[in-house]
Amino acid sequence: MKFKFVIIVCLALVQAGVQTPALAQCKEFIWPENRAKADESVAMWSDALKQGNYRQATPGVQWMLTNGPKWNTKLYIDAADVYDKLAEKETDPAKKKVLFDSLMMIYDLRIQNCGDQINVMNRKVYASYKYNFKSKENLPALLAMYDKVYDESGNNVTDGNLVAYMTTVKNNQTLFKNLTEEQIFQRYDKIMAVTDAKIAVATQKNKPDDVTKLKGYKDAVDGILIGMVKVDCDFVKKNLAPKFKAHPEDLALAKKIFNFMLQGKCTDDPLWLESLEAIDKLNPEKDYGLKKTLAGRYLSAGDFAKAEPKYKEALEIAATPADKSETTVYLGMIESKKGNYSGARELYRQAASLDASNKEAFEKIGDLYYNSFDNCAKKQSQAEDRLIYLAAYEMYQRAGNSALMSRAKAQFPSKEDIFLLNWVVGSSQKVGCWIGETVTLKTRD
């Protein structure tokens, strides 16, 4: 039978592979002695692959695996493709298993003859995952394989094996109830550590699409964990907070607390802020979003002494004009809160120059002017005092905020007010106090 033949050939290949330990990477072409037969075999499987006739490709692949196992990595890439496609299409369970076993042997032979163990191990485990992640019979072995791959691969685990590993953990626990919460979290931590390392590399290489994709994987893994273990704010405070208090230098634990409390919507708890501060302190990679979030928390609490330097740190690492502009607006808000209105205005102007689309900067200047009436009014002339509102109006107009424009216009001087000073609508007038703007005179009526 054909499938019996596959088994016999694959067993022979394993024996052949064991006899020749791998040193090379199979990057160069090393032809077997029978070059004519080798050319024929390569042509046979190459043509069959182009036609999608995977069964017809097997004789050529098998001959080269037996007689030219170090020919080139292309042999193993194509061989894996052939047996993967055959296994996918096979409906008979027994025959599918034979094809799957042959596929696994091909990955083993590639390692034996061509090295590149980490890469090939990751390919092998993902191929196994495709066929076994729902198999009650094979799930324990798949989990053990993933454990080994993660232990040996370090941060070189392939992207496809991030969510797949956590899915394998979940399916094992669902079917067998054989994992403790501690064992689940150990594997979760491994996945998160690898993913964070990958995000750091992608960020350093300025690959925002990769960063977005990897963060999506993190969200997916978090979702799987939450489906397995009830991870709410009470869980965090009961199980993770004591560990964090004992080991405040544990970055992975701080990240876990931060993410779980964020998902649990309990960010008002002081523990969440503590975790955020720990991440900012311990994380070797500078994170703009994290620093901005931390600064925002300080700002909302009125702690300007902490908010200002943190916003300045964020500004130093902001990657885009929009981020730089937004951060500069926050720095302006702090100066405004401190009563330094001219300093705040200068920062808002800088924000507007950094990003022309940031209309909030002009709105903030308008607010500075509008709210300065009580401090700046001389209370000798309504018309002169109310010029402040014209200055605010012009800033709101630049911001494109019609509602605030209407509010400012309602405070313009009246016709009677300007008549008393012999002023004319449309004339230029200087706004006093710290503002020092020149405005075009208008009235509210």
Please state the CA-atom Rg, rounded to the nearest Å.
Answer: 34 Å
- Beta-strand content: under 5%
Number of helices: 23
Helix content: over 70%
Distance between the termini: 99 Å
The average pLDDT score comes to 91
Spell the H/E element sequence: HHHHHHHHHHHHHHHHHHHHHHHEE
Report the count of strand segments: 2
Overall shape: elongated
Taking pLDDT < 50 over at least 5 consecutive residues as the criterion, the unreliable ranges are 1-5, 7-23
Structural commentary:
- This protein has 445 residues and is mainly α.
- Among the domains are: 115 residues, no CATH class; 73 residues, no CATH class.
- The chain has 23 helices and 2 strands.
- Strands 1-2 form a two-stranded antiparallel sheet.
- The longest helix is centred in the middle third of the chain and has 24 residues.
- It is elongated.
Keywords:
single chain; 445 residues; mainly alpha; two-stranded antiparallel ribbon; 73% helix; elongated; disordered N terminus
